[in-house]
Amino acid sequence: MADDAQQQVKKSFMYVNRKAPYGTIYALEALEVVLISAAFEQDVSLAFLDDGVFQLVKGQNTAGIGMKNFSPTFKALGDYEIRQLYVERESLEERGLTSEDLMEITWEDEEDDYAKKPSIRIVSRMELTEVMAQQDVLLNF
Amino acid sequence: MADDAQQQVKKSFMYVNRKAPYGTIYALEALEVVLISAAFEQDVSLAFLDDGVFQLVKGQNTAGIGMKNFSPTFKALGDYEIRQLYVERESLEERGLTSEDLMEITWEDEEDDYAKKPSIRIVSRMELTEVMAQQDVLLNF
Amino acid sequence: MSTLHTVNKSPFERSAFSSALNHLKPGDAVLMIEDGVVGARKGSAFAGLLESAAKSCAIYVLEPDLAARGMGETDVIQGANLVDYGGFVDLVTTHQRTQAWL
Amino acid sequence: MSTLHTVNKSPFERSAFSSALNHLKPGDAVLMIEDGVVGARKGSAFAGLLESAAKSCAIYVLEPDLAARGMGETDVIQGANLVDYGGFVDLVTTHQRTQAWL
Amino acid sequence: MKLGILVNEGPYTHQASDTAYQFTKAALEKGHEIFRVFFYHDGVNNGTRLTVPPQDDRNLQQAWSELAEKHNLDLVVCIAAAQRRGILDEGEAKRHGKDASNIAPGFRISGLGQLVESGIVADRLVVFGD
Amino acid sequence: MKLGILVNEGPYTHQASDTAYQFTKAALEKGHEIFRVFFYHDGVNNGTRLTVPPQDDRNLQQAWSELAEKHNLDLVVCIAAAQRRGILDEGEAKRHGKDASNIAPGFRISGLGQLVESGIVADRLVVFGD
User: Fold this and answer.
1) Which chain C residues touch D if contact means CB-CB below 8 Å?
2) pLDDT tens per residue, range A18-62
3) Which residues contact C78 (CB under 8 A, 6 or more apart)?
4) DSSP code at position E48
5) Domain residues for E124?
6) Residue of B nearest to F113 (CA)
7) CATH says B11-140 is which class?
8) Architecture of domain C3-101
9) Which residue of F has its CA nearest to E54?
């Protein structure tokens, strides 16, 4: 059935992350769906807006709260051919964040001598609205 | 142990309701604690602020959502000697509500020929802050 | 090619409702369900924002949820349309995609 | 006779944090925990409100939660004090009551 | 039309499961096909047969199980989310050395791929949560 | 000082149980007495022994059970909230005709009066939730 589905259609999936990490499990369990979805050869992208932008802040250290730091997984997304991470500029600004505060997340471009290219695109609210309106499936977490 | 506790101390308990009914169970399960607490002969009061004020709106009809309408229970609180329901004026106003939109909740004053007296007091944010600051125990739902 | 946005949170409690309104395109539809219906109340601090959204988008309220919270047609902003669960299904099928602003 | 107010929600996502600030008395303390720590970030749209609260109330941030979210002492508003879980316990015992703004 | 349903919260605490149930019932009444109902996050807690709701309240697990039986619905509980939260079928219980299982009739445990597949196969994916 | 603890959310989905656990441990280390830890709302889900968290993750139920054993803590799960959510001990399971129970070691099921009593007896009641 899964094989049939893969052969029939290629859809665009956007995973929309609006919540801070660790306070709730949504960020982590969203990432688990994203990783699985990579196996289905669909067109996958992620959006980070509202408090979701905190998921990408660098230097996360969870030793003190006894939980697993899952932020390194974002850096591995390129290996799963997930290369489109949209981050909303207005959400960053409201929270006193800049692109400097975010982890560096890259993918290797095979067709360009494996050059490392950035996966994160900072976009305006209006641009993000346009991208969301082009998706087949939107999953908010 | 419960009997000991009752004999030892009389504390003031305030149950602070900040959430709308039905979308989550907090309002209903808060009310269940309030009813139990009446048996312990403590000084019990309730506060309704933020979306908690929607819990007291009259004319609730849950037939269409398949859930039980628990709002009539508020009217029975007087029989449990719970007579102090503080409602924050600013929270009502922000939500386009007035005291006219709320259920009538009364208690019978034995010492005044069983006259029905209102249990709801509309108070300002500043007044509610003062009342909260006088409590021994505050439970937010 | 328009989107149905469902909102199940009170705009007084969470930012999800405002965030949904900030990401609408003209012709999209907004459906308020669960605690989200309290955002439809007229005369509230939020009503103005919703009324502006209503100029370019269709606004719907799930009637069973509105009734549960003691409200009806006369309590909501002008231009909001009441639907039942069947109407919710129709909104899903007549829009290209659904985005749930959880 | 002062109160310790704990806030575990982001002020950008929920109204709980603002509501807590609206119900402080001078001499009260505010402790940010869990997702609430993001409200301590300097330069945010919320920082001004928190800085005014800091004039009459003590402001604390649970350091392990701040570190988990990639932040440290230099990232928070001036006047905010970092505490660990032991410090959280001390705040509870040295204030008359605790109010959790859930 | 072919619809996929995602339920992200458990019964009673949030209205999500109630709304998803009412929506699913209405969609079936209108002649639509429900490709699958997937339970994720705390949604997996809808699938325990050990709940005993008050007699004057609705029984959500039973409502889902009955709807599934009547319409041959595919109710899938996410295995990873279920393990974290203590929802097990007999096979899972044995595999992890647990002395009891609690999955309800009509629910089955499977992987997250079943959710992605819902998104691919169904014409619309409708999400209910907190 | 004598402290009462209230946990309103289940494990993993919200951080409440983690924070309550870290707080309780720190309070014990400082020599305070924990009068009781009461689990209400979805908090009752901390008390199921059927969870199987990933191997690289913490096991919250086990952490609570071990802390209770070490310090003789009273971990109380609200009976009404537990019934709604499918948390049963053996007696409750029998009484309601259920074929399994799932309560974890060190947890006991009792009424809401135990929470009110915490508020009366403890010097401070500290609440953790969503």
Assistant:
1) 12-16
2) 999 999 999 999 999 999 999 999 999 999 999 999 999 999 999
3) C42, C51, C54
4) B
5) 2-51+58-128
6) B36
7) alpha beta
8) 3-Layer(aba) Sandwich (3.40)
9) F84
